[in-house]
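Dear colleague,

Thank you for sharing your sequence with our group. We've completed the structure prediction you requested, and as agreed, I am returning the results in plain text so they can be pasted directly into your records. Please verify that the sequence below matches your submission; if there's any discrepancy, let me know and we will rerun it promptly.
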Amino acid sequence: MNKRKEKVKTNKTINYILLLLLFITGFFLGFLFNSSSQTEDSNTFTQSRLKGYVYINPLIDFESVQSAKVGEIVKLESELKRYISQKTTEYTKSNVTHISVYYKDLNSGAWIGVNEEEKFAPASLLKLPVMIAVYKISESNPSFLTNKIQFEKEDIAMTQNIDPKLHLEEGKEYTIDELVDRIIRYSDNDSLTAILDTISYEQLVEIYSELGLPNPYERDSIDTLSVKEYASFFRILYNASYLNKDMSEKALKLLSTTEYDEGLASGIPSDVKIANKFGERENLDDLTLARKQLHDCGIVYHSSKPYILCVMTKGASFNSLQAVLKDISKIVYEKVDTK
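Please find the predicted structure tokens below.
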């Protein structure tokens, strides 16, 4: 009887030892897995977080470093590459020398790019972060948007090839909210100048710093952004991760009223909403075929598959560049709509 008890006791001890070994092994393997996952994540994703807090670390933007290489999105990438290669290879015929595209599925988070790291002059695209900076100020100072400014025409004005449909009147007062409406809806440079007189340099560039983007207002800056970088502004608005929900909604609602409809908007059905901003620039000192630039970037509110699409172009003819914006928008929408 004593031998049987000793044998049972020995078996229990062995079982305890085996369970302990299994626990230690599982813990160790889990540690190794988590360590490798953290290393992989840090190399695979980029994050931007809001500064100035002690106890929280708010996430502003989150994006994978590598583009998606799975499913239907690969077919879209191939089709875009073929189109871009044809246009830029035959540049003397097409009048188009450079095309960059960024596409992001807002449901899955998957994205693709073609020449997405190439730099362009953002031009009027920079009016979007100005709007974001103004709305950020108004979150802590709600009366800021109702402040009035008397418009005085400057002797040297910024030229625009795509002329605004409405212009500010000399000597008339406008609220900051009205001026923001005009820089987005009509891309009006006079309204932009008036707004820039009301906000500080630090307030304007803070958004670039917090998103980890190059600051185009720095003296040593070459004033360039890529489609992938610029798309960050639309991601943070869609996710309401920088402005609060009300201001993010206000911003995208205003962007959905832009008067320019010859670019991305012309490549999708008229009943599909798009919140977008365009930019154009011409370098008269550049004697090459790449002297003109035209860009369009926004969110296309497809009924079931909303997406971000940004296209930047260079060439010799604004009409040719507009045609490229339309073609690419159409290619993307038709591919998305058939999925």
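Summary note from our side: The first helix runs from residue 2 to 44.

Kind regards,
the structure core
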